[in-house]
Sequence to fold (796 residues):
Amino acid sequence: MSENGSSKKQRKTSKGYKPTREESALDVSSEPRERIALRMTVSLRRDPQVAVRHRCLTHTGLLANLVLTSLNLGDGQNLGTANGKIALDCSVRRTRQGHYCISTTDFFFPLVDSPYLQGRIGAANVLSDLYAEGVGECDFVLMLLAACRDMTEDDRNICTREMVRGFNDACLEAGTTVTGGQTVLNPWPVIGGVATTICSDGEFVKSDGAQVGDVVVLTKPLGTQVAVNVHEWRVRGTPKWKELTNRSILSREEAEDMMHAAVCSMSRLNRHGGGLMVKHHAHAGTDVTGFGLVGHAQNLMDNQAAEVGMELHTLPCIANTVKVEQSGVFDFRLLKGYSAETSGGLMICMKEDDARRYCEELELLDGEKAWIIGRVIADPDRKARIVEGIKILEVGLS
Amino acid sequence: MSENGSSKKQRKTSKGYKPTREESALDVSSEPRERIALRMTVSLRRDPQVAVRHRCLTHTGLLANLVLTSLNLGDGQNLGTANGKIALDCSVRRTRQGHYCISTTDFFFPLVDSPYLQGRIGAANVLSDLYAEGVGECDFVLMLLAACRDMTEDDRNICTREMVRGFNDACLEAGTTVTGGQTVLNPWPVIGGVATTICSDGEFVKSDGAQVGDVVVLTKPLGTQVAVNVHEWRVRGTPKWKELTNRSILSREEAEDMMHAAVCSMSRLNRHGGGLMVKHHAHAGTDVTGFGLVGHAQNLMDNQAAEVGMELHTLPCIANTVKVEQSGVFDFRLLKGYSAETSGGLMICMKEDDARRYCEELELLDGEKAWIIGRVIADPDRKARIVEGIKILEVGLS
Fold:
């Protein structure tokens, strides 16, 4: 995976931070205390109702729609949105001084066992909304933090410290700084933040400019939800994991690779992807997170000034997530484009020539591929959809 | 309490929103479903470990110190702080365009049973940090929201909607607007937000300019923690409540008045208090919340450019909170100045003449008193303390 060897616990490369395979698998220590402290999601598993968490997203998606729509929040002055109301990824406001204040907030419950990586992933995810606006630089970050009430004090201190360290390291790698925040105790640990940048005309990309004939770029593969859940099944030795192995669908090594690829992807910053959008004349962008590829594609289409829709013809997926999905052990809706992603890639509408140059330059900077996965078409119904005979790309560890 | 009569459920006066006595006491309906939905803190009480919540503040205060200090967050470029690191109430950053971006975030678990009022109080509390910087106008707000996992779907929808409505109404009253945010499901409901303003030189007050000879102004009375807890004791019929009544320390009506005064105070915006600071040449300010009066006074002194300390000679307290404290039923540390406040007043250092004019003008705008409660002295130890023979003011409902 890297020229530096896998024995080093944490490394920086010119491409930015990459966790080691051991970090992703969490076989990092045989020392019980550290091990317990590192197993963050254990705090969630203790909770008998934790299964509910997996349904949170749909619920809160519906809830947010209900609440935001019915209360008619906002003042119609949000920029880069179709109706001027609540924004797509960020709040984009014209300041009294004539500039633009672009701001976003997001916070997360653990989905990996390493608090350090959870902190990294949380920061990458918060910053990603800003990058989706074609911004490469974040001016400052506020940190949202909940320490886990149900841990021993020692575990809580270690876990919280490691989460913050991961969050802070990712912010430093992004060239920004944590300047404040809030800390509470909660049954479930939380890490997240607020990312803000103030910029001038021409320094960001409004999210509403997609044109017929544009292609659609995606900068990270799909499948993080599949990988994280298979990892949980494996670690907990659940019936689903036993079914996967008994039917020889997936080996332990493949599951570890899959989790490692997901963790590498989730902790990678979309900074370069965002920073290159203005240069390559991007028309509109968003990032792929909880609603899945098609969910976010639809949000993006709903937000366009022109009457456009999106046809998706290619699904780049983390290696082996597709065969897990096809096994029928669990329906993540990955191939329908609705599997939730965490800290997913940017999805950008731009001219085809621009897109090719964008992908080339981004691969040089990130050391990771980006793909043209669809095209923008004229469509009064503004529909985003996957075409028949979709092409699936299996994306292995780079 | 008001010239409009108490039968109207929600009112706006020229002084801003004030809850009715019924709203504060929550005897708002005999209809079971609405009643359940309105009893937000029930969701916390169900939790066997909820008692831990009362100790959260100390824990997270210590934790935040541990984490923030040990990780050396920030880049030394925060303005208005002694060391340029993590800010007192807000992150204050000079923008690339030469202005100032003042930003703060805060989120809360329910401490009143009405989700609407909890939303109001949450917004007032978030905005207060901005007002403590001498800013009267908030440019925009992002909303942080967690719907309660442990409610029925109906209750959850009603509660969440009401929280958001209260939050949004308070933002509208503050002349600002909700432009984005984040919604999740959590064992405990959460409401909070991010308040941001971009301003120019001379439009805000740096928090580090207190001078020897300044007096200290406080814009809301103390005792919200006492009132909220006594209310819980009464509603739950706990031994502490029985002790208070058996010993004839407090009547039911006094407890209701106390809670009502606390709810009125917590849901009142500090907007006018913040907006008048520049006009009246305030030198430094903060707001009084979780660390109590003396805790925040100490934070403020630790943050001053000059070697100054603070002597507090007057404690304005919500009526009857003092006799509850003195009864010995529970030690809130109110008279020591460490009782936690929620959405408390601004504490401002300014010249005595300015302070008198500030208090007069503020009373005209808010219809509520502000007090001179202490003075700034030369002190190389930078100590904030309560003087011997402190004067206690009992503040009744206005």
